[in-house]
Amino acid sequence: MTRKAFTVDEANALIAALNDVFREIRAHRHSIRDTAQKIEVLELVWGSGVRDESNPDHAEFLSLHEDVDRAMRGMERSIDEGVIARGLRLPAGGIENGLVDFPTTYFGRWVYLCWHVGEREVRYWHEIDAGYPGRREITADDQREMGAAEPGSIDDSELDF
């Protein structure tokens, strides 16, 4: 499988769209959290009896579960369409912390351009195995080299998509 090697400019062109994606993800997560609290209250009040069809809060209990499922599907759709379909990666903690990795090439090897929600542009990169703590600032020389290699000429089996 061949992956796209993003240039810094191509990554920066996606920042506005990614901000929108993370707004959607936050909204879905907020909805899930709020609805789960309501479910918890019903379970505290009724215990397992809330699952009984004769329980006066059973319909609400089922409806709340449907709301959680709908919000989960919405969040998955936002991630799939807004991040994964673009060839990007959510590293560990990416959903919770607003982190995205853009695969790129750098002197003949794969590395990641790294962006965090709140940053106006992609200013950092890291080795495939370094993660967020290994971020390095992109220099002008780095920027000229990143994404310059033909993606098909580099083995992409090390990328964890």
Notes on the structure:
Helix content is 45%, strand content 14%. The protein folds into 2 domains: 15-86; 94-153, no CATH class. The radius of gyration is 21 Å and the shape is elongated. The chain is built from 5 helices and 4 strands; from the N terminus they run ααααββββα. The termini are close together. The chain is of the alpha+beta class. It has a 4-stranded antiparallel beta sheet.
Brief account:
This protein is an alpha+beta fold. 45% of the residues lie in helices and 14% in strands. It has 5 helices and 4 strands, in the order ααααββββα.
Blueprint (SSEs and pairs):
Blueprint (H helix, E strand, L loop, with lengths): L7 H6 L1 H32 L11 H25 L11 H4 L1 E8 L2 E8 L7 E4 L8 E2 L2 H6 L16
Antiparallel strand pairs: 1-2, 2-3, 3-4
**Global mean pLDDT:** 92
Number of domains: 2
- The neighbouring-strand order within the major sheet is 1-2-3-4
Largest sheet geometry: 4 strands, antiparallel
Number of helical regions:
5
What does the overall shape look like?
Answer: elongated
What is the rounded Rg?
A: 21 Å
Strand segment tally: 4
**Portion in helices:** 40-55%
Contiguous low-pLDDT stretches (5 residues minimum) are none
Separation of termini? 11 Å
